[in-house]
Amino acid sequence: MQRNQRRLTLLLAAALSAVLTMLAVAPAGAASKPSRSNGANNRVIFVHGHAPFGKHDCTKTFSAARKHFTNKKWKGNLLTFGYYTKNTKCSANVTGSRDTPIKDVAKKFANYVSRNYTEKGIKVDVVAHSMGGLVVRAALHYTHQRAAGFPKKLYIEDVVTLGTPHAGITKSRAVLCGKARQCTDMKAGSGFLKALPGKMPSTTRNGNMSTDWTTISSYDDGTVTEASGIAGTANHEAQYKAGINHGELITTTSGSHNGRIKYSTTWTKFHKRVSPVEQARLAVYWHATT
After folding, report:
1. SUPFAM superfamilies given for it (predicted)?
2. What is the pLDDT of residues 262-286, one digit of tens each?
3. Using CA atoms, how far apart are residues 62 and 155, in angstroms rounded to an integer?
4. Is the dihedral of CA 43, 141, 202, 28 positive or negative?
5. Which residue has the higher pLDDT, 156 or 287?
6. H-helix or E-strand containing 59?
7. What is the architecture of the domain spanning 38-285?
8. Which of 198, 194, 212 lies closest to 127 in space, CA to CA?
């Protein structure tokens, strides 16, 4: 009897030791990669653009867009990410100024997403306005490249950029923007822009989740040309012909607007389409924007 009890005790001790060993050697962020799916359950992170005075009220900036998503029965949390020290009312905010390089902002954003979501096996969607789209683009690119200071992987399912200067801001806006580092990073031909590949980062290698990209631009955007807003190859591209300026791309939530969309390599004719914010919602809901 005592021999059996001793044997059982030894077996339990060995089993416990094995479990502890497995826990000790399990890699950080070992949560399994989620699968892609349509639906309104994902957390959506809204990322603002450059601010001339180095501050945003995140609630105010994305008020119309978040209200639209809510009214359309979006179930996941609608979050905001900011990157200026003087920002207010952001769900998450990191320190920085207009002189913080966009790549450094991207690193902070990537680590925020990794720490709070990816490492827990949670996927997110992102809707970014203006320079915010470059932040997200760089975050995914340098994460895929395993660049120093970036996380090992990111689970970002869908990204929509609205009025993002993928090929740089207009010359007149570059002059108005000034010499702050973020302004020089956004100039056409800058070292920052040249370092980004032409195709939007969506690879599944190194454990990353595949990311579906939609880029949206407007012919009436005085800050980012209609060509720059969709520069680089994305899964889906949409343009609005007239009546929507740079700021209105993230605030126009209703109505019928003259626009077109690219299917594979072919553009449709300009026709009446949904608003830019509704286009963004559809893009993060579905695998494809139609």
Report:
1. alpha/beta-Hydrolases (SSF53474)
2. 988 899 999 999 999 999 999 999 9
3. 23
4. negative
5. 156
6. helix 58-61
7. 3-Layer(aba) Sandwich (3.40)
8. 212
Neighbouring C-beta atoms of residue 134, cutoff 10 Å: 28
Residue 89 to residues 58, 59, 130, 196, 244, Cα–Cα distance (Å)? 5, 6, 19, 31, 26
Q: Which residue has the tokens 């809707």?
A: 127
Residues ≥6 apart with Cβ < 8 Å to 238: 214, 215, 216, 217, 230, 259, 260, 261, 262, 273, 276, 279, 289
Angle subtended at Cα 232 by Cα 227 and Cα 234, rounded to the nearest 5 degrees: 105
pLDDT grade for 289, boundaries at 50, 70 and 90: very low
Q: What is the pTM of this model?
A: 0.89
Structure tokens given for 3 = 């021999």
Q: Calculate the CA 113 to chain-centre distance.
A: 9
DSSP letters spanning 116-132: HTGGGT--EEEEEETHH
Residue 156: beta bridge partners? 124
Domain boundaries, the chain: 38-285
User: Distance between CA atoms of 118 and 23, rounded to whole angstroms?
Assistant: 19
| pLDDT for res 26 | 42
| Cβ atoms 234, 213 nearer than 8 A | yes
Q: What is the pLDDT at residue 263?
A: 85
Residues in the chain: 290
Find the largest Cα–Cα distance for the chain.
90
Q: What share of the chain is helix, strand, coil (3-state, %, to 5)?
A: 35, 20, 45
Q: Is the predicted pLDDT of residue 290 greater than 60, yes or no?
A: no
**Among 31, 228, 48, CA closest to 126:** 48
Query: How many CA atoms lie less than 13 Å away from 11 in the CB half-sphere?
Result: 6
Q: What is the pLDDT of residues 16-32, one digit of tens each?
A: 454 444 444 444 445 78
The one-letter code for the residue type at 68 is H
